[in-house]
Amino acid sequence: MSLISKLTSKKLKDKEFKNILASIEPLKEDYYTLSGNLPFSKEYSTYVPYALENQYDSSLVGVAFDYLARFRIGQFTNKEEARDHLIAYKGLRKLSNKTKNYSLTDTFYIPLINDILDFIRSESKISPDICQIALKLAKLEQLYRSRTIGETNVDFYTCIDSSDEIVNDLISLLEVFENKFINSGILTKNSEVVFNPSFGISSPLVGGADADIWIDGTLYDFKTTKKNSLDKNDNLQLIGYFILNELAQEVHAAIGAPPLLDIDRLGFYKARYGEIEFYDIEKLITKEMRDQTLVELAKYFSKNPGKLNLVHDPFFVEDAKEVLKSISARGI
Fold first, then answer.
1. 3 with 94, same domain?
2. Is residue 221 part of a domain?
3. 233 & 321 share domain
């Protein structure tokens, strides 16, 4: 179970969580675009038409695009940490354990990471080779996030290249990304960037939550979907990241854990349209709304702690539970 899974679940307890998020869900009218176009409208231009034939390819492109955007941002801002702590590595470990092939880290993963580092340190453009690397990482990430082991053919992940159709789609998406995101002015050489930010104690509470990227106070979710409309679950996921981060900030401050990111703005980047859709937190959520939602979340998580009990530090777990009870009592 993860944040996304909770939002799509039919279970009553997950619907309860979804309803809490819905109480602070932004409206379409709360968004604005960097381009000035009407958000989620027919004013968008389609720069990269959707032409993929099956759902797996679509999902694969979405994850691979996230990796390529990450590496390009790392290259632009000279941040080598863009190659660190990839979710794909967890997929590699899952594959290694299933196949008993424990040499994959040395024979496959480390050389691949070294190629990524070479790209970040270079002035090279996105090439078919770097796309194939991103696609292999995407396969491993999908393996990690799946409930079943899926494909166990090691060559499928390490040797077999994806089709030219998929690679060409990625290259086209990255060309638009270069023009509409990298060169837009929202990213500078000195930007503060956090890749794949997670949300402290809130992540195990929902069974796992990590966003695409945080840049200078804005949390972005990259989408390669062909839809230009506002998807309800995407909308709830984005506001969910914010409020989970706020809850974790309070818990961490109370127990002396490291502070988390400050999120001032949330946004989607729609890769096929080159559009960025934002809304400002301070214009959407009052302090009273924030505080009431934290009370409701604390009550919910006190009854439904997700994977909190699997956190290795038992003292951290017990302290966190006490803080959640304390927050939930504010509503009494």
1. no
2. no
3. yes
Residue 201 sits in the same domain as residue 236: yes
Looking at the domain assignment, is residue 270 inside a domain?
no
Residue 244 pLDDT class (50, 70, 90 cuts)? very high
Same domain (yes/no): 1, 115: no
Q: Mapped to the 3 state alphabet, what secondary structure does the chain carry?
A: CCHHHHHHCCCHHHHHHHHHHHCCCCCHHHCEECCCCCCCCCCCCCCCCCCCCCHHHHHHHHHHHHHHHHHHHHHHHCCHHHHCCCHHHHHHHHHHHHHCCCCHHHHHHHHHHHHHHHHHHCCCCCCHHHHHHHHHHHHHHHHHHCCCCCCCCHHHHHCCCCCHHHHHHHHHHHHHHHHHHHCCCCCCCCCCEEECCECCCHHHHCCCCECCEEECCEEEEEECCCCCCCCHHHHHHHHHHHHHHHHHHHHHHHHCCCCCCCCCEEEEEECCCCEEEEEEHHHHCCHHHHHHHHHHHHHHHHHCCCCHHHCCCHHHHHHHHHHHHHHHHHHC
Task: Convert the pLDDT of each residue in 180-239 to its tens digit.
Answer: 999 999 999 999 999 999 999 999 999 999 999 999 999 999 999 999 999 999 999 999
Residue 241 and residue 219 in contact, taking contact as beta carbons nearer than 8 Å:
yes
Number of compact structural domains in the chain:
2
Residues 183 and 198 in one domain: no
Q: Answer whether residue 174 is part of any domain.
A: yes
Do 25 and 102 belong to one domain?
Answer: no
For the stretch 3-42, pLDDT in tens is 999 999 999 999 999 999 999 999 999 999 999 999 999 9
- Tell me the sheet residues that pair with 193: 215
Full domain range(s) for residue 4: 1-29+192-212+227-262+281-332
Is 140 among the domain residues? yes
List pLDDT tens digits, range 270-315.
999 999 999 999 999 999 999 999 999 999 999 999 999 988 888 8
